[in-house]
């Protein structure tokens, strides 16, 4: 296949997502990454024809087609690049680093090209949570990137040549874009990013049979400017650490290489600079094992070889020399040599010092090899240093390199190359460490005739360096460097799934029964309204591309003028139909004035004060989400749905809280009564009451039903309620509100699983998110430690297995079935056809998949028969959920009579034929059915990983295999012909299992006017302590509707409200839980949204109470009004009951 260059495209259409398309030069496929602009997270599911394609062009076209019906092409922002640095987040912005221009500056003996980065571009896109008042747009352009960094796409440069490691398996000590690679490392596709090295690389152009390559790679472990990165840091890494490598090779693939190190003195020391620029070196009296560990790591890197230290400090720096020598005296494998090259005559410095280096060069020897195979290794490594490891070190290492080249008897052109290379490399190292080019370059320049003088004198450079430090330019540079390499990124693997990553399930019952699905455009576009008619299901099933945890549900709320809309919905989740678990049941849907997106944050369910999820497994890893709408009429309007999900590292499993044993519930109610009768309640009372509920697996809904009979807010039984009831004050106890005084204060965090309890097992020092307790409250909480330990026994933590991410090859993806379309194709892919199929599927033939007819003709010399593929629409004659992949293939052999609608395979010579069917999203197939004409083959075997051996059933004209599989992206099988069988004729191939529905076009956006809600306003009383709103009616009335004015903001709002109606005797006659979604801010809908809820079958009442159950800080009640109707005496006699 023709070699291609790396291609990168970034697309930002209007909406919530950014698409990153990358085609690495080292691979034959293109990847599409979806970035969620709500959370900033990157998503990739390894699904062919969704986020992995056979060419860069087809990947880009797929994105264009997604928006062709709804967005003008001019509205899609586009960026391009020649390589990808990576992706990161900063100040609520998404930043994508692209290389715009690079230049080949060197090559390795194996032919790998080394490119210098010359021009970059940072695509900066604000996230939806960005607030211009709080954050400034990030800028990475201050980092000196261009002409200071290089990369290689085909070989590992972070280790000495030849490295046995792959490019992506780099040594992070020398990788300068680790921060940018993190999102791709997490999904196992770090290979789409370059490995960026800081330093210099150059290959000689000597016009001889030999080449010289000089590589300088600077360490990232202690990367700051010289007065910050003096000596070793807390991790034992020296400042300005550089590994240099000189490689010599000939045209016969023979090579020699020699490595050395240079860097700051690897002990703990610093420099104090006076106000007038004078400097004093100070050695720390507290030395650690950093020096020993550093030299051990170098020796091990090169095969446990000895090290010779070349110390270039002068007499005025003896305190550093003495401390350095003392630190390495105990290391048997180190020789310590000191040379003051500053005292040598400059005119004779090169010759004098080269005579010193010559025997050392001969002692170190070369690593010798042929064709990437090492035959002998370097015997010793030199480590150079001066005070800054810049100027003197650069001169000394240049002379050492001359001694190495002299051993090979190279001519003057080699020495000229070394001079130019060391001048440029020395400038790069000096600029990164001292913000100026290297000094003392005159010594190197003097070895080359006709070379220009340095632009600045050594004295000028010294003054500039001191000025930049005194003027604090160095501290600014340190901040820029730290920001570039920082890996402390707040990352939550939360994905707001693009509709291409979700699917509407064709089968409503998921048990092989045909039913008409909802219009799949309900998840396709931002604004859609569909009608669920009499013959259409009102259950929407969404399939995730892989097991994920559902954390956000978004619905578009509709006004009543849109037509009949559902009054409630039930949310369920599960891995399959048999494990369907209820998350929320009969959630009331409000009516609004204009269509409004609203968010149910399921991740915050623990603070709602109700049992959510109802079945605990619904909050675990799931693949399917069921949304069942309440249906009272034949023609009903439903609008958009979207979800957020995430993939945790650890899954927490808990039992379901569904205890209904009468004796247990009676005991619990008895404990509640005792709790309510106390005038003062302490921490142990709350822990014991909550522990009994958790231990007995009693639902929060039962607790709520009991406590509202007493007319009190059920939230008062939670410790968290007391902690949040008033403003935080560091001088008082968070629970009892008593002064802390001068006594010893202990702080505690909320339990990570049982959110209603403080965790006494992990007391902490004071922390902004912890709660400080007085001595008495702390002792009471600590006495409950055994109770918390018992409760933790209910928790099971399970490591989440990583979803396999296929790294597709072109021959694995070409011609596979695309089940996101109503039509599908299926064809054989013999090994001999590799070249032909690749030619067929190059750019320009991207329409091979999905056209009704596609023809390709081979030459007469080609051994593979000509074929034509005709697609047919899916066969729905069977009452099953199937994928029908009929294909007609005609052989170019007139002697063979081609039956209609079949595929003939010539099996005269070959007896085994391999096939693959690929699914649009990860699916669970369970049966493969193949219908044959004439003679059946010897066998059909599935070669994809299965849970158990498949069961084969042979009929007169067909073979079927029933099996159990895990989640798969594709299924592969092999057909084996009989020994005497000259042809296999296939008529039909079907793969049965769960299937995805084709997405349809976008309906138009709609608006509906609605008159203002007219209700009765009553003076209500807000009790801040108990978080209860009380409304007393003048006379008994029947509540028909309740209206909440919900602010349209991004902040935290109360969502969980328990509405209770009491009669004039204070008996509870009706209660309803209302879950208020958070409206999403959007243009044109105002600052507040009226959400109107219908209350069904309410008897007459005299008092209405709204209990705010949310366990959040600074809770404020909503503005509320009601729609009431006069009551009759009979309507007011209903009694309270437990529900």
Question: What secondary-structure arrangement, pairings included, does this model have?
Answer:
Blueprint: E1 7-12, E2 17-23, E3 30-36, E4 42-43, E5 52-53, H1 56-66, E6 77-81, E7 83-90, E8 93-107, E9 113-126, E10 149-151, H2 178-186, E11 197-203, E12 210-218, E13 242-250, E14 254-262, E15 269-273, E16 279-283, H3 290-301, E17 307-311, H4 318-328, E18 334-338, H5 349-364, E19 367-370, E20 373-376, E21 381-385, H6 391-407, H7 412-434, H8 441-445, H9 458-470, H10 473-485, E22 494-496, E23 503-504, E24 529-532, E25 539-557, E26 568-574, E27 581-588, E28 596-601, E29 622-629, E30 636-639, E31 641-646, E32 650-653, H11 662-677, H12 683-696, H13 700-708, H14 719-724, E33 746-748, E34 771-773, H15 775-782, H16 785-792, E35 796-799, H17 810-813, H18 834-840, E36 853-856, E37 867-871, E38 882-884, E39 887-888, E40 903-906, E41 912-923, E42 925-933, E43 939-942, E44 951-954, E45 958-962, E46 968-976, E47 983-993, E48 1020-1023, E49 1028-1047, E50 1056-1062, E51 1068-1075, E52 1078-1079, E53 1088-1094, E54 1100-1108, E55 1119-1126
Parallel strand pairs: 14-21, 17-18, 17-21
Antiparallel strand pairs: 1-2, 1-6, 2-3, 3-4, 3-5, 7-8, 8-9, 9-10, 10-11, 11-12, 12-13, 13-14, 14-19, 15-16, 19-20, 22-31, 23-25, 24-30, 25-28, 25-29, 25-31, 26-27, 26-29, 28-52, 32-35, 33-34, 36-37, 37-39, 38-47, 40-47, 41-46, 42-45, 42-47, 43-46, 44-45, 48-49, 49-53, 49-54, 49-55, 50-51, ...
